[in-house]
């Protein structure tokens, strides 16, 4: 029997195309993302022109088929791009996720051809920057408690409600984002979704939420829908059938958030290894102290476990078919806590130097915390995983 030996590279770059994609994104990150990361995070500003470069590189419609103007790539490819961007600027990676996964992929999988003709080219090029509106001031984890309503009158739906914590909700402090995938309740309290553009009557920027702990190069905003007038043709799919694509999109969101965590973890690990080879105390390199070795070795083992789980989960996900809740929840649960722990270990290994911005690890530590909250809290993952394991006969071994 011939046994195929899988290397790490086979798992993390299953095809030549994946390998080339990773190389291309890594080069872009070194040359264009890294030089701006500290400045944009410090200023809590979103780098719009750099974001549009992602469109030029074909990354904004990564999962859209080639015949529809995209790059025609798969879930693993999306994970690669998120991981590589996050190793330098997790906030920028989060803005990418909000656009390419929460808007573009969700829209592409569920919208009619008519709607795609109207918007797809603009979001793939980056002319329009998109986001997704699910969370409300009184409905986060308990998302089905959302109160935003859409009522149909003639050729329009009228949406009333508030959405909060929306990534890409604004482009800068005063400018509303361009286009949103908005969930609202229609007749019988069923969930429907709509494409809402800046400029629609009754659609406003509430406030830009400042002083975020991390992810400061992405903008988070509150958005207001005051009897917002939306053409009926901007309904995505059929009225009342959006729960299923909301759940599916949450799975892909969790996977790509886990990819951001793995990017953070890998960068923090690199920094701590390098420093332990350079810094001396008591006439020894600090890598020679057992306690420092424990930080490095434990971090490496957990990083590899998270990354391997991430790529094996990604390889099994078809972007169009729901049904991987347990592993997308579990990989995000694991990768998010591991990334925070590894960033924390890195600060510890760097000592006082690690506490300051120049060393980067303090920013990675702050950025890592978001993934324990956004796209579902770690408690929500624990609840879902336990529910699925105890309800369905999921094979463990
Ligand atoms: C920076 C940032 C960006 C975001 N971007 C977006 C975006 O683009 N679009 C969007 O729609 N949303 C976005 N969110 C919202 C995010 O998804 C929510 O914050 C998240 O789902 C948690 O909801 P919540 O904040 O209302 O917390 P809550 O639901 O109020 O939870 C508070 C606490 O109670 C716990 N809890 C709640 N229910 C249970 C339960 N059943 N069992 C155990 N514990 C429970 C939670 O785990 C948490 O610890 C973003 C959030 C942040 C911080």
Question: Could you describe the 3D structure shown?
Answer:
The chain has three domains: 8-125, Butyryl-Coa Dehydrogenase, subunit A, domain 1 (Orthogonal Bundle); 130-236, Butyryl-CoA Dehydrogenase, subunit A, domain 2 (Beta Barrel), CATH 2.40.110.10; 242-391, Butyryl-CoA Dehydrogenase, subunit A, domain 3 (Up-down Bundle). The model has no long low-confidence stretch (mean pLDDT 96). The protein is built from eleven helices and twelve strands. The strands form four sheets. The chain has a four-stranded mixed β-sheet with strand order 1-6-7-10, with helices on one face. It has 397 residues and is an alpha+beta fold. A hairpin with a 2-residue loop joins strand 2 and strand 3 (156-167). The chain has helices spanning 8-12, 16-42, 48-56, 75-86, 90-110, 113-125, 242-278, 290-315, 325-350, 361-370, 378-391, and strands at 130-133, 149-153, 156-167, 170-172, 175-176, 179-185, 191-197, 203-208, 220-231, 235-236, 280-281, 284-285. Helix 5 (90-110) packs antiparallel against helix 6 (113-125) and helix 5 (90-110) runs antiparallel to helix 7.
Structure characteristics:
Butyryl-Coa Dehydrogenase, subunit A, domain 1, 16% strand, 11 helices, 397 residues, binds flavin-adenine dinucleotide, Butyryl-CoA Dehydrogenase, subunit A, domain 3, four-stranded antiparallel beta sheet, 3 domains, Butyryl-CoA Dehydrogenase, subunit A, domain 2, four-stranded mixed beta sheet, alpha+beta
